[in-house]
Amino acid sequence: MEKLERILVEHKIRVTSIRLMVLKHIMAQNRAFTLADMEASLETVERSTLFRTLTLFLLHGILHEVDNGCGSKLYCLCAGNEQGVFLNHVHFTCYRCGRTYCIKDIDAMPALTPKGFAVEEVSCVMKGICPDCQ
Amino acid sequence: MEKLERILVEHKIRVTSIRLMVLKHIMAQNRAFTLADMEASLETVERSTLFRTLTLFLLHGILHEVDNGCGSKLYCLCAGNEQGVFLNHVHFTCYRCGRTYCIKDIDAMPALTPKGFAVEEVSCVMKGICPDCQ
DNA sequence: TATTTCGTGCAAGCGGGTTGCAAAAAAACT
DNA sequence: AGTTTTTTTGCAACCCGCTTGCACGAAATA
Asked: Which class is B3-128 in CATH?
């Protein structure tokens, strides 16, 4: 069995040619992408199908969601198979190229947490200039 | 001159009755709100007028914007007149009541910053249960 | 093979934000 | 005051991104 197929099967997702195409494309780039990005890359596949595929991948922990406030949802590959480990990692969006990176080795939790608030989740997006654009 | 009027004038915004209503409403609650919230509270005022008013307030530093990933833009009163001071403060969204708070005394910058990335801005939204809902 | 379940494409809808335009209101200028 | 100019407001319409209903075809199961 191919590597891609194995990933789907391990996540209890049925294998279809479209799902393989989508997964292959996701794995070929290591950054966050939008539904529109995916649509542009896989022109032959219907938007709604891509949407449902990405939603499925989200649900099964292959992808996670990022919101950098730019109006479009971003999807990002979960590293390894260790689901949940990177729940609170930082993302970085570059002003110049617009790419969004997962900064996996940095925890999003600020040094202090607010008194009286029970924090369960942290979403932290930095913006600035990425190494490629400097 | 009334307090509210003074605030507008200080920010070089012309005083109108709608703007006073909006500002009064904003100041009456100390949490972030959406355009839809405002629309519901000030039923007599047109959505687009509210939108333009909020945009104006944003532009003149009376409000700042928060994105907590829930699909709607949030607006939040800037504390004091010290614009820019709270650029990187943390926000907190409660799972139960949905309210979003400005946590003004905590800096959003994580302990570490990613190597090679020039960070200019940080958006940090925590989610969990607020003191009122515990 | 017959039956059920699942995947896909199409079209349509929805929510939130935004804009063009014309009327009303306010300000500036005789 | 009366006239002209600028702003503000409401209405309608639009845009964009996301999401869903439905019908058909493919795949799994009996």
From this structure: mainly alpha
